[in-house]
Amino acid sequence: MKITIIGAGAIGGVVGACLAKAGEDITFVDTAQNHVLKMKEYGLTIKGNENSFTIPVKAMTLEELLELGEPLETVFLCVKAQHTGGAVNSFKHLLTPDATVVSFQNGLCEQEIANLIGKDRTVGCFINLFADYLEPGLVQYGGVGSVYIGELDGTISARVQNLVACLSALGTAKATDNIWGYLWGKLAYGAILTATALTDETIADVLEPERNRKMLMDLAAEVLAVADYLQIRPMGFDDWEPSLVYPIETRDLEKINLQVDTLIQRLRTYTKTKTGIWRDLAVRKRKTEVPYHLTPVIEVGEAAGIKLPLTESVLLMIREVEEGKREMSLSNLEILHDLYQKNRVEQASS
Predict the structure, then answer these.
(1) How many Å apart are CA 130 and CA 15, to the nearest integer?
(2) Which of 26, 140, 243, 253 is buried most, with the most CB atoms less than 10 Å from its CB?
(3) 86: exposed, middle or buried (C-beta count within 10 Å: 0-12, 13-18, 19+)?
(4) Distance from C-alpha of 123 to C-alpha of 109, rounded to nearest angstrom
(5) What are the phi and psi torsion angles at 228 (to 5°)?
(6) CA distance 275 to 69
(7) Model pTM greater than 0.90?
(8) Sign (positive/negative) of CA torsion 299, 300, 306, 312?
(9) Degrees (nearest 5) of the Cα angle 291, 189, 178?
(10) Which domains does the chain possess?
(11) Interval 315-346: pLDDT, tens
């Protein structure tokens, strides 16, 4: 399988390097010229928790890809959510009629991709992988999680099976008939991770206090309530089980604490201790993809009459941090705690 990876950053870099190491025909495409030049000259280095490696790779800029003009058969799209439309529009004229574009992204990017090139050429992917782009030619691989591949209509096709076989180099790839369930399950978990990025603490340290857990579970439950409205069954993965969190009425705090304790143990084994969102805010000083994750959830919630005060507040504060109007601090969690308490009082009196 000849695979073109658009976006050779954290996810694209790790996935592509592992597949190239396994003998797959991989071409990396990235807009960062210094990153491409480094890969061309020295290869791509993956700095792992225990094992690190450098592998020679084929790499080119987007301009070089377009100038070359060769047909694209299989594309792994690994750009940030906000760059989805621009990326797809730039190369879609190169796609063959039976081409496949797989979204290795956070959020619900499959919807946008399908609108641009058709559902028949779009495949969904859930990937839970901890990685960071550190510098040109170097990606830190912080820990492997689950990978699920599925058709948008819920079928498990031959091409899905072929993709799963190819991705076996990652060690965890599986086919699924509920890709939207995994994407929404990750959206709920991602809302929690986004809240941790409002601080300068590690994910594990924010999750440790039981007080934080209760509030953060309500944040995730807001996202899960929207999924429930859409009749989507969110799926669990890697020590995260949405069914323990929503519906709130059936929540078992003891089971949730056991789940979070296990999750924290996993997180503390990773070299990547904070989110990519945190890195965008604190290190790269650039806008995040958070609005592209949470805005669609909020819009559906508003249309359905579902209140999402915690989700809306997280999005607002992230935007304020991006604009330099808010510091990253534990005090931001206190704002969420106040909202949590207010919601609980309102629920108890209704």
Answers:
(1) 11
(2) 26
(3) exposed
(4) 11
(5) -60, -40
(6) 36
(7) yes
(8) negative
(9) 95
(10) 2-177 (3.40.50.720), 181-349 (1.10.1040.10)
(11) 999 999 999 999 999 999 999 999 999 988 88
